[in-house]
Predict the structure.
Amino acid sequence: MSISDFERLLEALIPASGRTTLTLTEAPESADDLIRLLERAIATGNRRGAPLAQIDLPADAFETFGTTFWHVPIEDSSRDGVVRLVFARPEEDDGMPQAA
């Protein structure tokens, strides 16, 4: 899948409310390709008002990644080749006090 195809897919999937998860059953071939994909996911999520909230990726395949990419937490997907991107639209402030 090309980066432009990926961006079009993200534009269609970003939620109007709540959370959505995009699972890629085949991870990018290189860390550089993954970085480009994650950068586009962050930019698209921010533009659509549903920032990237979590990244799951196979840690053994991408050992150079730490526990975050920019500000987004990274978890081990523990499944070969699976990359999961979770986008979450912040709750709207309805003016009501929130429970602590």
User: Anything to note?
Assistant: The chain has a mean pLDDT of 80. The chain has two helices and five strands.
